[in-house]
């Protein structure tokens, strides 16, 4: 069995687009944890937050993470908060090759503005409030994110060629890790 590759980072960091491209490049299946949860529970995550609250969602998220991480030969895009709850980061580092897609609050704010998805934690905030909120959340979440085996700065993501650059950088680092540790990715 080949180890799962798990992409982590703040919402709108590019985990899904990079994860899809990475999976295609290395011949693996791609899973987005949020989409997986929505399919399994037949409910949007925003609705789970509204109807049952964050604690309910985080419990489901943790259980579904453990389910998906057992799949063979996958690239997994995790939700922005996934590493920060229920000892999920420790679990991911045990079973996956973890990659933190790191970005500045400004980059993330720009990505959020371009995003079409509904972001329950960010709704109703002015641009200034949004960047301030993202910066504060990054400060809280960084101790978890920084535990990833690989950290890749994605502040450069503004074109498809740069997405390819990041995918190639991830492949290079995974190959180096395989050589160093015998990881079969």
From TrEMBL:
It is an enzyme of class 2 (transferase). It is found in: Cytoplasm. It holds the Pfam family SKI. Keywords: Amino-acid biosynthesis, Aromatic amino acid biosynthesis, ATP-binding, Cytoplasm, Kinase, Magnesium, Metal-binding, Nucleotide-binding, Transferase. ATP binds at residues 12-17, 119. Its cofactor is Mg(2+). InterPro entries: P-loop_NTPase, Shikimate/glucono_kinase, Shikimate_kinase/TSH1. Its main location: cytoplasm. Its EC number is 2.7.1.71. GO terms for molecular function: ATP binding; magnesium ion binding; shikimate kinase activity. One of its GO terms (cellular component) is cytosol. It catalyses: shikimate + ATP = 3-phosphoshikimate + ADP + H(+). Mg(2+) binds at residue 16. Pathway: Metabolic intermediate biosynthesis; chorismate biosynthesis; chorismate from D-erythrose 4-phosphate and phosphoenolpyruvate: step 5/7. Catalyzes the specific phosphorylation of the 3-hydroxyl group of shikimic acid using ATP as a cosubstrate. HAMAP family: Shikimate_kinase (MF_00109). Monomer. Belongs to the shikimate kinase family. This is Shikimate kinase. It comes from Alloprevotella tannerae.
């Amino acid at each position: 069995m080949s180890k799962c590759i798990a992409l982590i980072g703040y919402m709108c960091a590019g985990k899904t687009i990079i994860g899809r491209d990475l999976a295609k490049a290395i011949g693996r299946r791609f899973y987005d944890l949020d989409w997986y949860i929505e399919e399994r529970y037949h409910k949007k995550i925003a609705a789970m937050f509204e109807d049952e609250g964050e604690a309910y969602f985080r419990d489901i998220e943790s259980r579904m993470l453990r389910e998906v991480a057992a799949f063979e030969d996958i690239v997994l895009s995790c939700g922005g908060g996934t590493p920060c709850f229920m000892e999920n980061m420790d679990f991911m580092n045990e079973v996956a090759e973890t990659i933190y897609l790191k970005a500045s609050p400004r980059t993330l704010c720009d990505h959020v503005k371009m995003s079409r998805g509904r972001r329950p934690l960010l709704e109703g905030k002015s641009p200034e409030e949004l960047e301030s909120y993202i910066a504060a959340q990054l400060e809280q979440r960084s101790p978890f994110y920084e535990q990833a085996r690989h950290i890749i700065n994605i502040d450069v993501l503004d074109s498809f060629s740069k997405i390819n650059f990041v995918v190639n950088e991830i492949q290079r680092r995974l190959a180096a890790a395989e050589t160093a540790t015998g990881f079969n990715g």
